[in-house]
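B., you asked whether I could sanity-check this one before it goes into the benchmark set. Here's the sequence:
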Amino acid sequence: MLVTDPASAREESSTPPRPIGPTGNWVLPSDWPAELYARGIDGVTRIQLQVGIDGRAKNCKILVSSGYDQLDTVVCDRLSRRARFHPALDESGRRTEGVWQNNVVFQFDHSMPTIPQPNEMRMVMVIEPDGSVSDCELAVEQPIEGVPEIACPPMPPFQPLLDSAGIAQRVRLTSTTTVTREIVPEEPESVADEPDLEAAPQ
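And here's what the prediction gave me:
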């Protein structure tokens, strides 16, 4: 969904902002406005983010519109909330504000999906006492063809887990998803009984 174009980052500082984690998790297919998706509308939005010294996006500017306000609005909203960066550095190595440009692509995939191979996927996340997810790792037993990197999706905060004394605990949560595949033999077609022939009256 988010097409990375590193060469487009404007280098006003000695070291420009660098994304933290996969940028593809910042704008997801599920963010596609339902009305536009139903009408088969896609598009490309080119944006510029102003990145503060805390690594957060302070401002989102549409450089080239997709042609649809709903798509452009979704792009800036999701990037402003989800994008995280290593902040830009000046010539002295001190944090400074910087800018980052990129394209966000909403595009239909008209290819026919293949049936998944048997596999196992394991996700391990650390949930802090305040319910926020501080760390997440996702690994597959067998690499998936055409998918170079598997990343954890953005996770909402959880309700804290309290011990018997009512103190919120730090928790490591592990979940495993297993994909199996088997050939199901076709059931033989049932043959309807032929109706009895009645003798023609003489």
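One thing to flag: The helical segments are 34-38, 69-82. Otherwise nothing jumped out at me.
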